[in-house]
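Q: Can I see a sequence and its folded structure?
A: Here is a first one.
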Amino acid sequence: MAEEKVPESWIGEHVGLLIGAQAEPVQGELLEVNDRGVVISYLHNLEEFKTPRDIGEHVEPLFLPFFYPWHSVVAIHKMPMEGK
C-alpha cells in the first residue's frame, strides 16, 4: 500500500490550522501545499453572517485564498466529515 503524502493528499479537503504564537485556529478548504507554506480558501466575510438580517435578505459568502508560510503554521489537521 502506497503511503499518502500528508498534508498534500488533503488538497480539496476541509482543514484546520493553528497559526502563530497564539495558535489562532483557522479553517478552510486546502488549496495548495508547497515548500513555502499552505494556501486555504478562507471565509472572509464571516462577520456579515453573524449580523441579523431582514427576512429574505441574502449575503453571498466571500471565500478568498490565504497563504500561510510554514514558519507561522503551528499545526494542520484534516477536519472530520460532518455526520461522522
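Q: Show me another, different protein.
A: A second, unrelated one:
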Amino acid sequence: MNRKELLEYAIENDGQYSRMDIMLEDMMEMGLIRTLMKLRRADNTYESTLSLVNTVVDEVAKAQLILDRIRIMYGGSEKNENEKLCEIAEHLGVAYTPKIKEEL
C-alpha cells in the first residue's frame, strides 16, 4: 500500500465525517504552535534547541498527514497552492514558476 492508498484507506475505514471530527480534534490538540512558541523562548543551549526542533519536525509531519487527508477528501488544491505561492513571490518581489506537484 502506498502513501496515498494508506491515507484513502484511513478516510474510508473511519468514515468521512467521523474522520473529519478526528482530524479537527488532532489539529486542535497538536503541539506544533505550542512547540514553536517554546522554541522562540528557548534558552540557546544545544540540547534544549535540538529537542524542540525534533518535536517541531514530528508535529509538522503529523499536521501534513492531516492536511493531506483533508485534501484527498475535498479534492486537490494545487491551483490554490500555486496562487498562494505566486502571492508570496509577488510580495517578496521575486519570480516564481509554479510546478506541478507530486501525488500525495
